[in-house]
Structures are given as C-alpha cells and as structure tokens.
Amino acid sequence: MTTDRGLNRRRFMKKTSQTVMGAAAAWMGLNRTACADRKPLNVILFLVDDLGWTDLGCYGSRYYETPNIDRLASQGMRFTDAYAACTVCSPTRASIISGKYPGRVHITDWIPGHNRPFAPLRVPEFNYQLPLEEITIAEALKPAGYTSASMGKWHLGGDPFYPDKQGFDLNVGGDHRGQPPSYFSPHRIPILKDGPEGEYMPDRLAREANKFIADNRENSFFLYLPFYEVHTPLQAKQELIEYYEKKEKQGSQKNPKYAAMIHSTDEAVGKILAQLDELGLADNTLILFTGDNGGLMPVTGNEPLRAGKGSAYEGGVREPLIVRWPGVVKPGSVCSEPVISVDFYPTIVEAAGAQADPKQTLDGKSLVPLLKNPESTLDRDSIFWHYPHYHPGGAKPYGAIRRRDFKLIEFFEDGKLELYNLKDDIGETNDLAETMPEKTKELHDCLKSWRQEVQAQMPYPNPDYDPERKDQRPGRFIR
To answer: b/e per residue, 283-293, with b = 16+ CB within 10 A?
Structure first.
C-alpha cells in the first residue's frame, strides 16, 4: 500500500522524468512543424461511470435515448465482447491510465474500499492511489508532443496523486472522490470552480472539453473525459425526467432519472463531436467510448447478462466499446474479439505514433489490428480479473479468466469453480464445471499462474470470522 513514505523521492523522480520527456516533446514539436504534411492525430477517451452493456440504443436499449453515441457507433466500430478490468471503478481507471491489470498495480477495489470485519476472508491491503512510479498514458504521449487533459472523475488518490501530478497538463474536477456531492452547481468540488446556479455537470464538462479542444486545435492533444455520471446520486434535469416518465418502460430499464442522466451524457458527447466537426478536427481524431464497470442494479438492467456492478458475472464487467478512427476503422463495423480496458493504453500509444517506455510492463494488447480488420484476432488467448474483496452488489472475493468462448470463475471463500460457455450461454445459467473437468482445470491452472506472474494480492482467513455477523459492514457504501 503506497504511503507518504518516500513520496518526495518519487515526486523528484517523476519530475525529472517529466523534464526529460518535456525536452523530447519540444524536439518532437519542432520535428512535426518541419513535417508539414503530417497532421497530428488527436485522441479522446470517453469513460462513463456505471454504464451498463445495454444502456445505449446501439447496444439494444429501447428506453434510453442516445442518438449521438449511436451515430458515433455508425461511424466507427462497435465491440460486442469488450470488458472493464474490474467490476468496480477505481481498478478499471487504474488499468486505463497505467496499462496494467489491477492485480499487478494493486488497486483492486474502489478507493477507499469496503470492509466486512466478520466475513470468512480478510481482504488484502491495496493501494489507495495510483503510485507516482507508474508511467501513465499521459506521460507516454508527452515525448510525442501531446498536451493532455483529464476532465471529470479521477478517483485514483488524493492531491499528491491528482492528474496534474501524473502527466496531465490540465485537471478539471478530478479529485479523490467517486461521485460528485451534486451534479448541479454548486458542485462543491474544491478544485472545480462552480458555474452558474443549477449548471449540470455533463454540460459543464462538455464546455470545458470544447475549450480545451479549441485552445489546442493546432497541437496534438489527448483528452481523457471520465464522466461522473451515470453514477449515483440520481440527479437529472427535470424536463428530461418528465419526458422519460411518460415513455413506455422496457423491462428493468425503467428509471426516468437514470434515463435522463444517460440522455444528458449523450448530449455532452454530441456537443464535443460537433466541436470537432466545426474545427475540422474530426478526421484527425481517434475516439474511444466505454464504461468502467457494469450497470448498477436495480437502477438499470443488464439483460441478457447476469447480475450487474459489483458482481463476478458478465453484467458486472462487460461494457460497450465504440472506436471511431476515420480512414482506418470501417464505419458501422462490428468486432467480437474479447478485449479489455488494459488494451486502451497500447492502442492509443501506437495510434499516436508514440513509444512506451521499454522498461515498463504493459498487460494490454494494441487494438489497432482489430480496428483495421475486425475479423482478425489478438496475439493472446486469455484475459483476467482479480477482485479479492466484498461488494454490496453481490461480489465475494473472486478471480476469473476468459479464454475464447469459455469463462471460469473461482470464488476464494470456498474455492468453488464455475465454468460457462459464453458463446452458447451469455447469461451464465449453465455451469459446466462438473461436466467439463478438463477445461475447468486448464483454465484454473492458467488463472493461478497469471496471479503468480502479476503478484496479485490475495485475501486470507479472517481470525474474527463470525457466521452470525458475516454480512455486517461498518457503513453503507455503493461505489
């Protein structure tokens, strides 16, 4: 667990590294100027908090309305089997920013986590911040001349670990918290100056994003826009709530406040896309759009997937992923190759023409081959999850592996194994562990080997275990 011990040394090392990379960036800037025929590729990564797999029109929702995001999908590639690296937010965010699995970087729960003092297992210590030693995606892009901004939810540590300490040139509204005190101004976020009374957060972030884009239209820029919404508290514009109250509900997707929040998020994305068009930047901008974990039940529904946020099952980790890259990605294409959030780092670095530090470990694979040909496959056979914690959404400490069509889950309390064929059983209703013992062992052995490789921290028997109080917790947290 990272503490203040050694923090000054790490700051010095990171500052020195940034100075060197800054000098390289200046040289790269001169070199780019000399190459007048080479236009910079800008990058925007939209990350929506708690977005469920079917929360978009282009992913099947008939209640929520997302015309701008649907249009983005029609102009780019839609992934059917894309995943967040964790069933909760902070670990997935760490995986995106570092390019490493949460188990390797030891950010395995939302920060500061959730405690069940009388449960069968005691959860391990984990990092409450993204360590400064990590070479972030913003730092990797700096030598290639990129200006980077983080706008919205950070949730990877307090002030010494804010985005501006991790390679980003601009931080708008990102601090230690996992949700805003209010989506309407005054937002009560110390590092975000309040706008006009009643200003809505997605509108504010879109305005800040468009200013950043306009200010840097002559440069290469990386905009990381992790929306606070659609995380609770459920707060939305009254006129949109009333609109969805009148609309016919669709199964478990029936909450008008949540629908209105999705609607406003879609409008914010639309404003930013319109800005790119207006400034003539759309053809030179790579856009990725995804979420950080599954939809929160019962606020939304994730059918046909099983369960939701805070769960070991598909509803907790499968996410929409849309990528638009004009001239590279075929409009309206669909890719079914399993991909995961650790893949974004190497994808963006390759697309930007940058170089990752050769001493750095990256767990992801670049998606560029898939973006060029959605029928291709990546040079790997498995992706992994590691969540040695408890969560109110239902998760008990577990690990999981997906290898092509098969997914194995290992529950750490009792060692139970579950095996599913996702191609035939996307809802994970038919456990094949007993009928396919060889496949079960194959995947379990691989999962254990991977945990050893990344040095994933494990839970251990709780000396205070009390069967009568095992589900008690010292506070109510939904993150």
So the answer is: ebbbbbbbbbb
